[in-house]
Specification:
48% of the residues lie in helices and 20% in strands. By secondary structure, the chain is an alpha/beta fold.
Length: 255
């Protein structure tokens, strides 16, 4: 699906969204939504790189949404639509502190979730490295469309960092999803909660996801992260949830 197709399937009217320099932001009303919700939308399109200027624009929109929600007593969802390259590794971006700008964007999304806003990412194309970590992967729930290709780090880059032969990593990737890029592997680890059906209205599927994130849950329950348990159920991260439980138990016992 193209971004235009996605916006048409998600929203009753997306004319109010700004699309500029590979970025997307604004508010739009979900199609056929009985609750009349107008989520904040941010995103990256056209496999654009995410640099310091881009990160600060998107973070500003998220923080404005939090402030408006606090003033109005509302907690509208935040949708993050992503088709990006990696972070922009230019000399200017690096000298300005690219890592801090990306961290600021990621923490803005995490803060929004902590303040009660459902944060939902939607991968509809490519994304990689810091651009992925600071956007869609920083949301509380990550969705994807078939054909999306996320990669926190590709195998050649892993080989350079770990000093392991590429052939060794390729062999490990066949049986260990955490070593392998791609949508199927990320879903196995619990990183992607659900792959949407492009043949059905996306608005209805996103509404169902939002209902599971908000209906009948306490603020504490909303804040919980279940991706490790999802990864255990799917076999992609068999021990992460158990280790987290043990660490939590030890921390509680030490209080």
């Amino acid at each position: 699906m193209t971004l235009d197709d996605i916006l048409g399937s998600l929203f009753a009217d997306s004319q109010g969204l700004v699309r500029e320099n590979g970025l997307l932001w604004g508010r739009a009303r979900l199609a056929d939504d009985g609750q009349d919700r107008m989520p904040t939308v941010i995103g990256v399109e056209g496999r654009a790189f995410v640099g310091v200027d881009d990160a600060i624009v998107l973070a500003r929109v998220v923080l404005q949404t939090i402030a408006q929600g606090a003033a109005q007593g509302s907690q509208e969802p935040i949708l993050v639509l992503i088709d990006s390259s990696s972070q922009r590794m230019s000399k200017r971006d690096e000298l300005l502190g690219l890592n801090e700008f990306l961290a600021h964007l990621a923490k803005s999304l995490i803060y929004a979730h902590a303040r009660g806003h459902a944060t939902v990412g939607l991968l509809y194309g490519h994304t990689a490295a810091g651009a992925f970590i600071a956007t869609a992967l920083a949301t509380s729930t990550l969705l994807a469309l078939p054909g999306a290709h996320p990669a926190v780090m590709d195998l050649p880059s892993m080989a350079r960092v770990t000093k392991l032969p590429l052939t060794v990593l390729e062999e490990k990737a066949k049986s260990t999803p955490v070593f392998a890029p791609g949508l199927d592997n990320l879903a196995q680890t619990g990183g992607v909660a659900q792959v949407l059906n492009p043949d059905q209205p996306l608005s209805a599927q996103v509404r169902d996801v939002l209902a599971t994130l908000t209906t009948g849950l306490t603020p504490r329950e909303r804040a919980q992260d279940h991706r490790d348990r999802l990864g255990k159920t799917r076999g992609g991260r068999p021990v992460a949830a158990d280790i987290a439980d043990q660490v939590y138990a030890l921390a509680r016992a030490a209080i």
